[in-house]
UniProtKB/TrEMBL annotation:
It is an enzyme of class 4 (lyase). The gene is hdc. Belongs to the group II decarboxylase family. It comes from Salarias fasciatus. Its cofactor is pyridoxal 5'-phosphate. This is Histidine decarboxylase. It comes from the Eukaryota.
Amino acid sequence: MQAEEYNRRGKELVDYISKYLGSIRERRVIPDVKPGYMKELLPDSAPVEPEDWENIFNDIERVIMPGVSSSYLLNLRWRLSGSPLLVQSAHSSVEKAGLISLVKIRFLPSDENLSLRGDTLKQAIQEDRRRGLVPFLVCPQLCSTLGTTGVCAFDKLSELGPVCEEEGLWLHVDAAYAGSAYFCPELRWSLQGIEFSDSFVFNPSKWMMVHFDCTYIEYQRELTNHHLNPCFFPTKVMILIFHIRNKFVTSISAICGVFRELCRRSCADYVRAEVELCIMGGAVQHRAVQHSTWLPGGDSGIAQICVNGSGNNSMHFFFFNGEITL
């Protein structure tokens, strides 16, 4: 979208907001649509080629607004091919969830590539059961990470999956950042063993140009088929639920808007360009002074360079004085 069109579309959006605020008295307080109504109005998969902006913009009123007060987050399938056990580099939110739930948490050591391996998991399970620990909730849960927050390391799903299946563990895969890379077939090398996972999550807001906090969650099987109608909730609870669901609707519109305007091919090309910049950056490591770099996955690093500095501040001057050119 060029600057001239961007200005015109921005004005259209402001006009739409003003029109909405001016006509809000005529709109329903509680929508008359059923949960899941969006499923019939949205395409089954992301488009291969970009769509016209007019069609995307018109869908705000046609698709989103009829259920803006109580819409459910859709199951967006974009056709991409007692003792919780966590790897040391798992996201801090997993630890916080365990603390809030008042359960014991055990952090498992990683290998030299900061990856959790199957034999480590197997040994930890055996030790915990010998200590008489009870599985967490219905299933013991393992949180595996594809692209850790600190260094973008990848756990070995091909080793962890069979262990989880044998031991009855729920395998949750957290690919919050790196999940966007899986739009590119050549970057799916870390997905070996994904068929063993019970749930998968990634954040489009981290790398997919979705400028709104949102999370994509995929379950291997449906956890529940029960739908709650917010009209039956007490008023105070309804306000909270409506606030959360309005946020969900905004996330849906953001994801759909990005995918429909940019299409799968453009999203993949965007990721490839950033990965290429990362590889180019790693190639200049020999010019730095007293430091070493590490790209997770070797030449298939997912757009993150880790620098391990040592000695004096010469490395900092090397980087920040502009001595590196790509």
